[in-house]
Specification:
Elements: H1 26-61, E1 64-65, E2 75-76, H2 80-86, H3 89-121, H4 127-134, H5 136-139, H6 142-152, H7 159-166, H8 178-206, H9 210-218, H10 223-234, H11 236-251, H12 255-261, H13 275-285, H14 289-323
Keywords: Cell membrane, Membrane, Transmembrane, Transmembrane helix, Transport
Pfam family, one: BPD_transp_1
Protein name: ABC transporter permease
Amino acid sequence: MTLPSAPPATGTAPPGSPAPAPAPRAPRRLWRTLSPYTYIAPFFTLFAAFGVFPLIYTAVVSLYRVELQTPGEMEWRGLGNYTALFTDSYFWTALRNTFTIGVLSTVPQLAMALGLAHLLHYKLRGRTFFRTAMLMPYATSVAAATLVFAQLFGRDFGLVNYVLSAVGIGPVDWQTGTLASQVAVSSIVIWRWTGYNALIYLAGMQSIPGELYEAAEMDGASRWRQFVHVTLPGLRPTIVFTAVVSTIGATQLFGEPLLFEGSLSGGISHQYQTLGLYLYEQGWGFFHLGRAAAIAWVMFLLILLLVGVNALIARRRSRTETIR
């Protein structure tokens, strides 16, 4: 009995077997490895130039005394800008106003957007027109909208006070009163962003399976019960997203309070000055770029804190629902 002979050790394939594919050359292998990164390189380049670098540079500037007239002269202060900031009563006023205006604008805004989306989710005549009209306030310029609302909330000839006087309520000074001015500024934010959030909620509702509504209807559930037990649980991730985005927008609110009266101080007694307006006043009103940079970093850390709290609450609720 003869044993089969071993194939020759010359590196050639035995007769009848397919020839092995040639190994790719080193430059080609390198290109295959690096080519995906070249497609996303423009984004990361722009992000590093206009996102990461300004953030780091602002953190550095916040540790120095820098004036707008002489930006090249930097005097080391360490945490002095932050210390001066936390001992400034106007900073705490701006922080309180930011929180108050944020609550007055975010809560009604999201509630109204949810209700409008629920109405548009059902079959209505002219749904396309109403959905398009929802985006008109969002597409309107902030300056134009704020100037119109400033006329509407005028003390002597404003339409809002005219309507209030028709029902027996005296004229309200919307630009001097603390709560009144904050309500007026919040109404501008509500008007601009309610339709935008309504369309986001509408898109989320359309992703909920229709079988759930059919099953709830067969069980005798009314539209309100369908909304509570089917729509809201299905929209929980969307609601968390809009709450986070609205919180960020409320923390950075700037255009509406600036143009409402045209004052950097946010009213005579700073009654509606937000953190964004306070930053602008310190940097471009008083020329303190170092302190303005410190305010910017405080706002950044505040946004991270608020987003983290929202994410933590949403995660705990999801865990509670899973346990149930």
